[in-house]
Amino acid sequence: MEYDLNFSWTGTIGHVVIGATRADGGTRKTSYTLGGGTSLPYLDNNPSSPSPLVALEICDNPEFWSPIIRRFCGDLIHSTSDWAKTAETVYGADLVRLYLTSTRVRNFSDIVSVGKTIESVLDATALPLIIEGSNEPGIDSDVFQKCGETGQDERFLLGTAEASRYRSIAAAALAYDHSLIAQSPIDVNLAKQLNILLREIGVQQDHIMIDPYTGALGYGLEYSFSAMERIRFSALKGDTDLAMPMICSAIDSLNIKEVREADPALQDEMAMQWEFYTGIAAAVAGAEIICVRHPKTVRMLKNAFADMKNNAGFSGVK
Amino acid sequence: MIRVNYLMTDVEIAKKKGEDSLNLMITTIQHSISYDETAYHLPVSFALTGIAVHDIQSALDVFARTSNNPLVASECILAEKTATEGKEPAPYTGFIDDTVIRKLGYSLVDGSILGLALVVGTPHSADSASAICRELQEKYMLTFLAGDVISSLSHAGVKLGLEYRLIPLGSTPAYGIHFVDMIARVAMMFGGVTPGDTHRLLTYAAERAKAIVIVFPGLSDPEIALVDGMRVLGFPILSVGEYRGGDWIPALPDAVVRRGMEIKGIRVNITAIPIPMGCSPAFEGKSIRKEEMYVEFGGGRSPAFELLRMLPAADVKDGQVTVIGPEIDAMKEGGAYPLAIIINVAGKMMKKDYEPVLERRIHNFVNYGEGSWHVAQRDIIWVRISKEVVAKGVKMEHIGKLLASKFRMDFPQLLDAVSVTLITDEAKVLASKKDADSVYDERDARIRGMRDADVNTYYSCTLCQTFAPNHVCVITPEHPALCGAISWLDGKIAYEIAPSGANQPIDKGTAINVLNGEYEGVNKFVKKASHGEIDRCSLYSVMEYPMTCCGCFECIALMLPEVNGIMVVNREYKGVTPSGMTFSTLAGTIGGGAQTPGFSGISKNYILSDRFLQGEGGIERLVWMPKQLKEELKTRLVKKLSDQNKSDLFEKVADETLAMSLEDLIVFLGHVKHPALTMKPLV
Are residues B434 and B497 in the same domain? Predict the structure, then answer.
């Protein structure tokens, strides 16, 4: 049976640029232009669609990180900059996503250290960066101001704006020319509403990536998948308020029972597989950036994306 | 203390003279002019024309292109002065560099600064100047100062600097131009204004830059021309000095900040309510039993009423709470006292139509109080205050504060000012109740008069798309949302408060089928909002293209072909209906955003609407309802039916005590000669 793989879509996903090279005034070795799609990825009629980028997530206070990663990485986690460096040199990530978990300590006030951490990561890796600011509304203003200022001219992707708190991130993006992640809880209408709020405050569409919130495989992924489909279909049907690239991070993958309680000998493998399959699903739904926490998942995904692009099936899929 | 006496200055005349001298002064520029630490050259000139001014030629060029704009002249003249004489010593900041401007702009977008103020001139007294500046600080305004006001504040011991949100620009009002060059740069950095795009710059300044200017006496003519030139940016110029004429707004020192913020629509967000008891929706469900109660009002035990009215802005002092009559400490424990809750509101967006909707919120807000409880509405309210919180020091005054604050917090777009009066003196309660009664009557008349045919705009509700992805509720004056929680007026207000929210206006367009309530515009909207799933939607029909159902419906109306009628079952009814199914089984079959001909989710109030079952021939189709629902609607339904000369219909509608099964229902309806039996066949 023949399918019409164009679905009479008329819309195009807008572009978002992450990372600035020396030519653009920054210090990154490369700059990514995401988006631009006019259809779904991996369709037979669409061989040219680019593979999603893979980001490795790291943090600056490992107390707030999965014990599986802490064990796998060993001493590495105590040096944010070394961790960031291996993301590029050892594990082959396209991007580093730095979570400033140090700001989650009760009564955090050392804003200067935020700038220093970001600087050390900028020095350690030449990859474009995604920076996750504070988790606490009370310090948002100072933390995001510092993130924005430290990364001026580097074109960060800043996270994460939500409908209830987006002003500081928007301000940092506007003031220092970064892009931002707009997250809504698995809901196409809320995603749209947040994008409208951001537009009203002055953030241009080409500075926004949608995070539809990604549930882990078996723990809500199907809802996320459906929300992503609907976001992407609306965009392709011409809704410009949803025509932004998407970023997915199934951060719950390492906390679910099957991974947490796995046989210690198999735990790394279980964690990788869980992140891997969740990432594959998100990629098929149209995500432009897939984030993972287990360093070894990075290469698995990258290989699989290359094979999928060549129509060679999924290597690594068991 | 500085005291300066000036004669009244005519702004128009001074401005003319000032402009003449500026025209002359700009031609005398000799040196090259530029500021360090900015990528925007002379920012005002650059933003207006895209031209980088660095010398007399470019200065005159820009001046001519902007039709001799006094802002441009002031900028060039001050830039030359700074270039030749150097910056003024501390505390004066002079020209502020880009890095600082970026941080200031950040705080503006971020919301930690609400707006900007420029204060210039020579205040009558240090006290009035510091009072104004303190008020600006308290209201999260970032204030720039130019002229003698700075030394006046320093002498009064007021701390100046960015960290105090009081920035001393320079020793004369002429330095006020830095206020404008700052806003020009914020517009270029944050507002996407390209240099030379005058139109966008002016729009940005007028709509986004929430800026006001406060002028003390003592400005020279060129300074008056400079300040007056800022009007083009949409900044209100408020004078607290001896100025008359022109478009300056005279104001008293103690009212000037409020006035300016009102004009620019700058609102302070209240975050904590200063009362000695907790206040949160978490307390809403609690009740205060007789033995826990310190004092009560209304509830049939004493006269009590509540009223919310809209008044002109000048008549409402925001946050004012007045208690007339005895306070709680003068009331006996366990007693019942009279009470009037009178709330006056003002707001540019506020409309008279919203009064009753907002008035209903008194109920929620009083219940938010840890130790205050409220039921019913209008002149049948019943309010209690608990012993526990009276012991903590709660008084009537605090109930007033709670109401004033909550209204401002929950309706920031709608309300600019809220004041509350609580009357506990019986004679005065009764006197003001007369006014309230006439307001209630007026409102009833207005709502009664509201028909679907009278309005062209209906409202949508897609709140439930979270779990029913393609569901679209269409709300009309006679057809509330199927959950019963949102009326047409609520939808309208919700849209005005949150224009990108879940309630959107629907232009109903031309009628396709008047009886079924099918409209072209509604169909078009529903098609789009249902993501292309639903093509047609009739508002008043169960049989043809009924509205989709989410899952929140108060009742389900469904067709019973065997009796040629329609039955309604409400959520509370747990038994089996004549259809052979319970409410929950039925709900499971029709929910999730689907359109199911023969079934419709409805609100209880819709049963009382003239549009109820209009597509199927009206209320005569109604054959069965649970007894509890019948009782709940009885008074209103009987009255409605008798108005339509159908008094006998109420008794002909069966319930579970009259007919449990379909067989019983057929027998019962035949016995009472229910009109549905002889109506046009449903299928």
Answer: no
B464–chain A nearest CA distance, Å: 10
Based on the fold, state whether residues B516 and B380 are members of the same structural domain: no
State yes or no: ipTM above 0.95: no
CA distances, A109 to each of A101, A104, A116, B257, B467 (Å): 13, 10, 14, 33, 40
B390 is a domain residue: yes
Determine contact: A190 vs chain B, CB below 8 A.
yes
Q: Both B286 and B393 in a single domain?
A: yes
Contact residues for A235 (Cβ-Cβ < 8 A; gap 6+): A11, A13, A242, A243, A244
Question: In the structure, what pLDDT confidence band is assigned to residue B56 with cuts at 50, 70 and 90?
Answer: very high
CA distance A118 to chain B (A): 19
Rounded Cα gap, residues B3 and B437, in angstroms: 53
Question: Tell me, what CATH number does B440's domain have?
Answer: 3.30.1650.10
Of A109-113, B347-351, B641-645, where does the model show the most confidence?
A109-113
Integer-rounded Cα Rg, in Å, for chain B is 33
Asked whether residue B100 falls in the same domain as residue B139, the answer is yes
The CATH number of the domain where A99 resides is what? 3.20.20.20
- Is position A254 within any domain? yes
Residues of B in CB contact (< 8 Å) with A are 102-103, 105-112, 189-192, 208, 462, 465-466, 469, 500-502, 531-532
Mean pLDDT in chain B? 91
> Is B486 in contact with B605 (CB distance < 8 Å)?
no
When pLDDT is averaged across residues B404-423 and rounded to a whole number, the result is: 89
The closest alpha carbon to A289, from A94, A27, A87, A58, belongs to A94
> Given a cut of 70, is residue B449 above it in pLDDT?
no
Domain extent, residue B672, equals 453-678
- Mean per-residue pLDDT, B370-395: 90
The average confidence (pLDDT) of chain A is 92
For chain B, what is the domain count? 3
CATH code of the domain covering residue B572: 3.40.1470.10
Residue A211 lies in domain: 22-307
CA B683 to CA B680: how far, in whole Å?
9
| DSSP SS3 for B379 | helix
Specify the pLDDT at position B463.
78
CATH number assigned to the domain comprising residue B163? 3.40.50.2030
Give the E-state strand segments of B365-475 in sequence order.
Answer: 372-375, 382-386, 417-423, 457-461, 473-475
The reply to whether the predicted model has a pTM over 0.90 is: no
> Sorting pLDDT into bands at 50, 70 and 90, what band is B4?
very low
Cβ-nearest to A141 among B110, B465, B501 = B110
Instruction: Report the candidate in B234, B243, B186, B194 with the shortest Cα–Cα distance to residue B213.
Output: B234
Model confidence at B498: pLDDT above 80: no
Which chain A residues are Cβ-neighbours of B208 within 8 angstroms?
202
Return the SS3 of B300: coil
Highest-pLDDT range among B301-305, B438-442, B635-639:
B301-305
Question: B483 and B444, same structural domain?
Answer: no
Question: Are B483 and B572 in a shared domain?
Answer: yes
Domain count, chain A: 1
**Closest chain A residue to the Cα of B467, Cα to Cα:** A187
Cβ distance A190 to B102 less than 8 Å, yes or no, reads no
Confidence at residue B3, expressed as pLDDT on a 0 to 100 scale: 44
Residue B673 has pLDDT above 60, yes or no: yes
Both B96 and B24 in a single domain?
Answer: yes
- Residue B18 in domain: yes
Q: Do B109 and A193 touch (CB under 8 A)?
A: no
pLDDT mean over B284-289: 77
Q: Do B107 and A141 touch (CB under 8 A)?
A: yes
Question: Burial of B534 by CB count in 10 Å (0-12 exposed, 13-18 middle, 19+ buried)?
Answer: buried
In chain A, where does DSSP find H-type helix? 67-73, 80-89, 111-124, 137-150, 167-176, 188-201, 221-236, 257-260, 267-284, 295-309
Question: Measured between CB atoms, which of A171, A187, A189 is closest to B106?
Answer: A171
